[in-house]
Design the sequence.
């Protein structure tokens, strides 16, 4: 690829200045006057972003990065690795290729993949980077994905789509029809080209809203990284009309916390109890799934209250989330609070409680941090209580 950014001296400069203060660096004189200074600075900024998020790219030689925003919006390697483990086959076409992180990992699960990216410059960058990463089974098409599907005119084992929100789609609530490509509108066309489609959406998308726009959904995957939901995946199969399974995964340092349940399954009757010896707080992927009754029935643990989404048991279990040992339970009243928490240090969380963490801290002069975790919540008898705990994991 004939890009001046790849000149060895410029590449060395980018590597040496990764992590540098760009505000200060921008004020310096450009040591390479034949290349735009902003382009070099953009490479430094994007490479800095990639250090933790994209270590494979960061460690490779002669990688070209797109804009910082593209790096921020792309999948992390950890989520892409997990996502690729969900599907396999001979051929896959990615209709929204972007920076190609997902396709790098899909290429390890498929014999051949196609990367579609309407931005010609970005398509060329990804093609170049894949050469540097020694990926041999990928084909690149700098064109609208509908044109590529029509021109290639073949059947694919999988279609992968990561639609982007249109600029005019305002607010936190949005629909898939507000994205490009418009998947609901094009679904019948896609099913002519493949029987299996994987659609990635932002975590902002409401699951029920996604289901209202799509058909033939078999599985919904909720992927979190270090307890922050990063993406939803709708797995759809042509003519499928059976039950829908929600599968959650929270990728943490040394393990993946998984949980799954059938959406709308009958017979989910959670049990309730007052606080016992241990307390459990589900991870963010489970919280996004809404499977709160299913957590109680699956793990045979008790809910504190219908709307609290905290669980308790006398015997410690391996739980997909945070686990605590309850040291004391107090009523939320002036005397108990003065005796136990006034001017103390603790980590404060609220669940189904009428006051905010900020107000509680201010009102009772509770400093942040320390070894104690205080859950302000409501028990099964509708009493406001505080659980003073020590964290197990």
Sequence:
């Amino acid at each position: 690829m004939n890009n001046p950014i790849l000149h060895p001296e410029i590449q060395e400069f980018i590597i040496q200045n990764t992590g540098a203060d760009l505000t200060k660096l921008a004020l310096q004189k450009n040591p390479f006057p034949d290349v735009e200074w902003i382009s070099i600075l953009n490479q430094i900024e994007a490479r800095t972003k990639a250090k933790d998020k994209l270590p494979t790219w960061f460690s490779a030689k002669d990688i070209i990065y797109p804009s910082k925003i593209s790096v921020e919006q792309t999948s992390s390697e950890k989520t892409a690795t997990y996502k690729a483990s969900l599907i396999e086959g001979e051929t896959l076409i990615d209709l929204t290729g972007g920076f190609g992180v997902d396709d790098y990992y899909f290429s390890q699960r498929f014999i051949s993949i196609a990367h579609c990216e309407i931005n010609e410059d970005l398509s060329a960058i990804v093609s170049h980077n894949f050469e540097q990463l020694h990926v041999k089974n990928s084909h690149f098409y700098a064109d609208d994905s509908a044109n590529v599907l029509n021109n290639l005119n073949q059947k694919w084992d999988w279609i992968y789509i990561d639609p982007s929100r249109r600029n005019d789609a305002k607010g936190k609530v949005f629909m898939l029809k507000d994205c490009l490509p418009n998947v609901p509108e094009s679904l019948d066309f896609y099913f002519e080209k493949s029987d299996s489609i994987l659609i990635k959406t932002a975590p902002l998308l409401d699951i029920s809203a996604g289901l209202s726009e799509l058909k033939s959904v078999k599985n919904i995957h909720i992927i979190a990284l270090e307890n922050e939901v990063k993406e939803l995946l709708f797995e759809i199969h042509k003519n499928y009309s059976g039950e829908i399974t929600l599968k959650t995964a929270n990728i943490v340092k040394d393990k993946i916390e998984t949980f799954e349940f059938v959406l709308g399954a009958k017979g989910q009757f959670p049990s309730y109890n007052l606080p016992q010896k241990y307390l459990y707080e589900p991870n963010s992927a489970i919280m996004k799934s809404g499977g709160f009754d299913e957590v109680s029935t699956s793990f045979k643990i008790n809910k504190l209250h219908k709307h609290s989404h905290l669980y308790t048991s006398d015997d410690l279990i391996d739980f997909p989330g945070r686990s605590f040992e309850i040291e004391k339970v107090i009523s939320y009243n002036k005397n108990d609070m003065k005796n136990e928490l006034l001017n103390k240090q603790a980590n404060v969380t609220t669940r189904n409680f009428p006051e905010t963490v900020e107000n509680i801290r201010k009102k009772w002069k509770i400093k942040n941090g320390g070894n104690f975790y205080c859950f302000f919540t409501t028990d099964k008898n509708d009493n406001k209580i505080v659980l003073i705990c020590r964290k197990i994991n």
